[in-house]
Write a structure and sequence with these properties.
The protein is α+β, with helices and mostly antiparallel strands and 595 residues long. The protein folds into 2 domains: 118 residues, Penicillin-binding protein 2a (Domain 2) (Alpha-Beta Complex); 337 residues, Beta-lactamase. The protein is 35% helix and 19% strand. The protein is built from 17 helices and 18 strands. The chain is elongated, with a radius of gyration of 41 Å.
Amino acid sequence: MTRTPLRPLARILAARAKGENPDHIERENIRLRAEATRARAQNRAAGRLLILGVAFFAAFSLIGARMGLLAASEPMEPRSAASGTEISALRADITDRNGRMLATNLSTYALYAHPKQMIDPARVAQQLSGIFPDMNAADMERRFTDGRSFLWLRKRLSPEQMQAVHDIGDPGLLFGPRDMRLYPNGALAAHVLGGSSFGAEGVNSAEVIGTAGVERALDARLRDPALASQPLALSIDITLQSAIREVLGAGMQMMNAKGATAILLDAHNGEVLSLISLPDFDPNDRPNPLVKGDPADSPLFNRAVQGVYELGSTYKIFTTAQALEMGLVNPETMVDANAPMKWGKFTIKEFQNHNYGPLLSVTDVIVKSSNVGTAKLALQITGDKQRAFLESLGLFVPTPLELTEAPGAAPLVPKRWSDITTITASYGHGIAASPMHLAAAYATIANGGVSIPPTLLRRPVPPAGTRIMSETTARQSVAMLRDVVTRGTASLGDVEGYEVAGKTGTADKPRPSGGYYNDRVVNTFASIFPASAPQYVLVVTLDEPVETSGPTPRRTAGWTAVPVAAEIIDRVAPLMGLRPRIETLPATAVSASGN
């Protein structure tokens, strides 16, 4: 920038030549510069005032326009705004196969407090403890006065509780609307449904999420906004569920068992019509998990799926079916059943040291539940083929059932399949699976040799399935199982008119420290009915039962699980529309004391 001097030399020299005072030139230049600076400042101030005026005009115009818009709009209740993702409380209903409600949503309210807004915290705490007995008045008063500004008091309120709290009349007690999950049948389908709880929560809404069972396994489907109006239809029939639960509970009590489970399965499409595990719980008030001790002692434990047991002689039909399928034997083939059987350092015995030999037909191996006869058949099959066959029946992997507990209940399978493993696995020892595994495997036999995965969802069209054995083998196997009921170890399971076929299984319970208990067993009866046209599979398992009506305690499945299963079939068969078929059977004296 070029600087103009206050005393320009040319003008100074000219002024001196004329005899004028040069100082006047400097003062004049100072004046001119001051006027120019003042003019520029005025221009800038005028520009700023103009911009500010325009800004104020625009702001007041916007406010005026907004006020006019609000004045012209319909009045609405104000909505509270919150940062973050909006909480969705949508959740689809769950119904049984006939559309009857199993789980739905109920509009209710939560109770929370703003302690700093309370007028009389001591009075509020005292009156709340009267409404909610689990609240301690002294503890609540301490929490109301410790300086916090927000406090959850109750996540769910009944209408009566809400009215009682409202009558307290303190401005520090507030209600927030929300949906809760309601199970109108209580404990009736507890282990199927599982239960739910709250996920993300706000004072005006809460997210309902599944915690167990179907609610958790199918949580994404139930929370899908596009499907919220479409109920999830299960395969369960609530009428059958109620009848079976009643009979199973009574049988569990009569047999002095610590637990019980029953599974009713449609063999043709894999639909689970009923699934009961006792003891159970009310999913409306789901208890807390056990923190110590045996998880199986908790009512939350689903014995049908999570209970992985040695299922004993129920496995024998798999051995004979494979031998039939391989063409090694037919139902009349005689098998060496001379007991006891020595194999290396091991001795294979029969129940109560019986000897059913020296020879038994393949059918009688099943009817009498011969360990030795079954072991001889398994050695003919060979271990590798036996393992592959059991694996094809789904007995080595978790069941694909739509329960969150199912994937974690893997069968216990020996890592090394030696000859002695081949022998013991043939009669259901040294290998463990759940009652649901057993039901699915028996369904393969019942439906003509095709394996169909079980499901808790309604299946309008059954899947194709995988053929495991021929129809002839399956039919012969059902006939042998029918003989077990008419003249074998399951004679107490014969329900007149319904042609029950099945196999008993009595297995000693393993000790946590190794070995087996002498007086604790898991008893199972796996049945198929009606035998002439197999359609349904029923598996009943009792944990540590003992039948005490006689002079000595009896712990075998023939005396415990079988009569309970027979009572269930007698109760539910008419409910399923099965018409009894009158049979003429020869009179036989059959013992029910076998395994």
